[in-house]
Amino acid sequence: MKSSDHICIIGGGIIGISAAFYLSSLGHSNITIFEQCGIxxxxxxxxxxxxxxxxxxxxxxxxxxxxxxxxxxxxKTEYPDLDYRCVDTYQVNTSEKVxxxxxAQTPIKWITDDHITSTKLLDTSDHTAKVSPKLLxxxxxxxxxxxxxxxxxxxxxxxxxxxxxxxxxxxxxxTEHVSVDVLVVAAGPWTTKFIHKHFxxxxxxxxxxxxxxxxVVLRPNNTVGTECxxxxxxxxxxxxDPEIYxxxxxxxxxxxxxxxxxxxxNPLDIKPDSTKCDDLINQAGYAAKCLSSADxxxxxxxxxxxxxxxxxxxxxxxxxxxVWIATGHTFWGILNGPAxxxxxxxxxxxxKSKTCDVEAxxxxxxx
Length: 367
Fold this sequence. Notes:
By secondary structure, this protein is α+β, with helices and mostly antiparallel strands. The protein is 24% helix and 29% strand. The chain contains 8 helices and 20 strands. The strands form 4 sheets. Strands 5, 6, 13, 14, 15, 16, 17 and 18 form an 8-stranded mixed beta sheet that branches.
């Protein structure tokens, strides 16, 4: 393709920004990112940012996850102002009942053992890490913008096509059509809706019921460690499994409560269920008392971008000459964002992904 060709990316989250970052790193900078609300305004700004190199090894995501973890470590080295932290990761089992402290000794100094029944090291700082997703998105975008990438805060409302190619876009704040040579749709959970509306000829199956995931950001009064915790908390009605991630700024991120609610058209219309957020705080307090009394910085929710078979969708839209899609990463979006973006960049510019084989994620599988 020519260096003057205009690549339009719909979606200002980790996937779209990573695509722009790696496209521009490979020398193509005539790129515009279209985002209707703001950069990282949805899940990429509300995710926990937990990274694991080997946790997808028994799935089709193995090569993508390993490649992307390595890219994260490259970014950690290249941009030391990002808050990457390599961390030990533990399973922490808790109960509503007060436990036997002699049986619940733990190397994690900042958690409390009153309700802890056992702990287990899941992985070490050699293979698990933590990053603040919004900071990451903003950093990658700022680098890409310095290379010439542009951002257009508006919603794409119309697509013009001719002979299997998208030729123009029309946005909510433009009076003229925007010319397009390559279109990338990386709009998270809105990707399927966009494809169904503008490319009805492609039979992309609807994802399974949209999952709304809740999280809270807490600021405890005392200093916490760096360990990421996967808590299994036993209650009178069953087991819940919140995840607890300390953040470099002194806050603690807790997530885990999900439900199934229709996806609104605008990310800014997403509201959390306050009760579910309160449940997360209560559950986390059984692992660390300081979280029960912590100041609540945020109660929030976002939707996991899924697919019909729970695998990412990465590749060219069948029947189109210049439309690419990247979505369906569920809760591994931050982990797999860089490799997805780099693979897309390689596919678009050279027709082949060198970073890893993404054939298993091809949109062709739904034909």
